[in-house]
TrEMBL record:
<dbReference type="GO" id="GO:0022857">
    <property type="term" value="F:transmembrane transporter activity"/>
</dbReference>
<protein>
    <recommendedName>
        <fullName>Major facilitator superfamily (MFS) profile domain-containing protein</fullName>
    </recommendedName>
</protein>
<dbReference type="InterPro" id="IPR036259">
    <property type="entry name" value="MFS_trans_sf"/>
</dbReference>
<feature type="transmembrane region" description="Helical">
    <location>
        <begin position="412"/>
        <end position="434"/>
    </location>
</feature>
<feature type="region of interest" description="Disordered">
    <location>
        <begin position="239"/>
        <end position="258"/>
    </location>
</feature>
<dbReference type="InterPro" id="IPR011701">
    <property type="entry name" value="MFS"/>
</dbReference>
<feature type="transmembrane region" description="Helical">
    <location>
        <begin position="106"/>
        <end position="128"/>
    </location>
</feature>
<feature type="transmembrane region" description="Helical">
    <location>
        <begin position="446"/>
        <end position="465"/>
    </location>
</feature>
<dbReference type="Pfam" id="PF07690">
    <property type="entry name" value="MFS_1"/>
</dbReference>
<feature type="transmembrane region" description="Helical">
    <location>
        <begin position="349"/>
        <end position="366"/>
    </location>
</feature>
<feature type="transmembrane region" description="Helical">
    <location>
        <begin position="174"/>
        <end position="193"/>
    </location>
</feature>
<dbReference type="GO" id="GO:0016020">
    <property type="term" value="C:membrane"/>
</dbReference>
<feature type="transmembrane region" description="Helical">
    <location>
        <begin position="272"/>
        <end position="297"/>
    </location>
</feature>
<feature type="transmembrane region" description="Helical">
    <location>
        <begin position="82"/>
        <end position="99"/>
    </location>
</feature>
<keyword id="KW-0472">Membrane</keyword>
<dbReference type="InterPro" id="IPR000849">
    <property type="entry name" value="Sugar_P_transporter"/>
</dbReference>
<keyword id="KW-0813">Transport</keyword>
Length: 500
């Protein structure tokens, strides 16, 4: 009689694929979950550095307007902002399309090092005593184009490693990088401002370039790049993946031939046709307009406003403005948690935008009464403004990038993200630009504009909100009916002692 086959041996640790980053090849093999933690950490740091390098213009606005021609006119400062944001927005559509076709690790590395160089270039104007508006506009245009590589890349990478019903909370926590970057960028730029405003650009530029080096050596965009597939994952991870992931994400995790299928990216028009993409993109246009107006003008506004009867310095205004982003961290996490619990992204985003309206009004009307009131109302405004902005640019984009209409094609994450955030960035460019002009008539006009935009963002989601509410009500009815039926069945057929 033939001997029975030996029992299957435990799955070996997967061998590193040829696409593995060079830094990981030099390290001992680590688990799948450890790699996921590394991906979260590196992408968090990477995008925090992107945002940190965007903060210097808001910190140095007053210094430039007071002592550096040609920026005596605040409208010209607005022009440099719009130059960056307009080309950032235009570059976003191209960057997302390329991100689904190129190696995301190399793409992100080039973007970080290149944008760091461009940010530092703006600061070089201080040391060369340049007063040409064209030079600073050109530096901002280059920086905007190169910075557009960041968001589609990091969302696509995180979306490749994290899929499932807890995506909103995970990405809500992860999205704190935006506020952390704003806070650190403000603190760094304000701290070195005393040595000359040029350093406020050069230091963040060097930091993001160094982050690009870390990405090149240690970031793996896909689990398959490290040899992970459903057949090589540990049992606990495989079971968790089955519980969390949808069919499209399972398909995208396949190795071998599936890896080649993963490389087929959808066209931009097909991505536009995904249900909800255009609606959320238009909503983000107004939501990001509000958020980026604060990003670029809040320190200037604080330095021009007497709080408790006292005016503050440029440096103090820069430090105080970070509290808006502290509120934003809480808002992003809260929005992600609520949207997961309700399974209603649009409803959560709309509620936050509607609550932002009274928050913005109260901050402008009563924030100057005392420092305590200013801090509290600023943080509340940051919570409601940044909450939906964070939700749409992370969990919503990732959900739509793996929408069932794609029929298993997961190479839409970067493209969908770029469409939504690119459209939002058009609003981000428009807000600071308009603010540069209408702030001359007083800040009442600026806050009126912001309140109107918050209202528009909420209204645009009305159709999806209605559908989600109907779905929530129906699910609750089904749960109640199911519980009633189980109770009735239990009463009709009581278990006897000893029954199992």
């Amino acid at each position: 009689m033939a001997k029975p086959p030996p029992p299957p041996s435990p799955s070996p640790v997967p061998q590193r694929a040829h696409r593995a980053p060079p830094g990981l090849c030099a390290l001992p093999d680590i688990s799948y979950n450890s790699h996921r933690g590394l991906v979260l950490g590196l992408t968090f740091v990477a995008y925090a550095l992107y945002h940190a390098s965007r903060k210097p213009p808001s910190i140095v606005k007053r210094a430039l307007s007071e002592a550096w021609p040609p920026f005596h006119d605040p409208a010209l400062l607005g022009e440099t902002d719009v130059a960056f944001l307009a080309f950032y927005s235009l570059g976003m559509f191209v960057a997302g399309h390329l991100g689904d076709r190129l190696d995301l690790r190399i793409f992100l590395t080039v973007g970080m090092i290149g944008s760091g160089t461009a940010v530092a270039l703006f600061g070089v104007g201080y040391f060369l005593s340049l007063h040409s508006l064209a030079f600073y506009l050109a530096a901002q245009v280059i920086a905007g184009l190169l910075q557009s590589t960041g968001w589609p890349s990091v969302v696509a990478i995180v979306g490749n490693w994290f899929r499932g019903r807890r995506r909103g909370l995970i990405m809500g926590i992860w999205n704190a990088h935006t506020s952390i970057g704003n806070i650190s960028g403000s603190l760094i730029a304000a701290a070195v401002l005393r040595y000359g405003w040029g350093w406020s650009f050069i230091v963040p530029g060097l930091l993001i370039a160094f982050g690009g080096v870390l990405v090149f050596f240690f970031l793996a965009p896909y689990p398959e790049d490290l040899g992970f597939s459903p057949t090589t994952l540990p049992k606990a991870v495989s079971e968790a993946s089955t519980d969390e992931e949808d069919s499209s994400s399972s398909a995208s995790a396949a190795g071998g031939a599936g890896k080649e299928e993963r490389r087929d990216a959808v066209g931009i028009w097909k991505a536009f046709a995904i249900p909800g993409v255009i609606t959320f993109a238009l909503c983000l246009f107004f939501a990001k307009l509000v958020a980026y107006t604060f990003l670029y003008w809040l320190p200037f506004y604080l330095s021009q406003t007497a709080v408790g009867g006292k005016e503050m310095s440029v440096t103090s205004a820069g430090y105080l403005s970070v509290l808006f982003d502290v509120g934003g961290i809480i808002g992003g996490i809260l929005a992600g948690f609520i949207s997961d619990h309700l399974n209603a992204r649009a409803t959560t985003a709309a509620i936050f935008m509607y609550l932002a309206i009274p928050s913005l009004y109260a901050f402008h009307a009563y924030g100057s009464t005392s420092e305590v009131a200013n801090i509290g109302l600023m943080m509340i405004s940051g919570l409601f403004v940044n909450g939906p902005y964070a939700l749409i640019t992370t969990a919503v984009s990732a959900d739509l990038g793996t929408h069932k209409s794609l029929k298993g094609d997961s190479r839409a994450l970067a493209t969908v993200t770029s469409i939504i955030d690119g459209t939002g960035s058009l609003g981000a460019a428009l807000g600071p630009f308009i603010t540069g002009f209408i702030s001359k008539r007083g800040w009442d006009s600026v806050f009126t504009m912001l309140i109107f935009c918050a209202l528009a963002a909420g209204v645009l989601l009305s159709r999806i909100v209605k559908s989600e509410i109907v779905h929530i009500i129906q699910n609750r009815r089904n749960q109640t009916l199911d519980m009633h039926n189980r109770t009735a069945d239990s009463g009709a057929q009581p278990l006897l002692e000893g029954d199992t």
